[in-house]
């Protein structure tokens, strides 16, 4: 192999190597593609979680509009309300008797 061919071969190898580096690390390269795919997967998961939450909230709204028993249950749990004929008994704080 002549020296001219060696020089052309080394220039070609360096050009291919620099193109490879540009493809991997350049703008819109493989590294950016991986980051974009990871971000997309995260956004898809968040979107699915929000869709499930929306369905749950929609069902809860429908129950609040149409189910008196559910409304009563929520009033008891969240507001501490009692029924019309119910009495609350609170034990006395003090000494326990034997």
Descriptive overview:
By secondary structure, this protein is mostly helical. The protein has one domain. 73% of the residues lie in helices and 0% in strands. It contains three helices and no strands. The longest helix has 37 residues. The termini are far apart. The model has no long low-confidence stretch (mean pLDDT 87).
Strand content: under 5%
Number of strands: 0
Biggest beta sheet summary:
none
Helix count equals: 3
Structural class estimated from helices and strands: mainly alpha
Mean pLDDT: 87
Compute the separation of the termini in Å.
109 Å
Give me the secondary-structure topology.
Blueprint: H1 3-25, H2 30-66, H3 68-79
Produce a short descriptive summary:
The protein is an all-alpha fold and about 100 residues long.
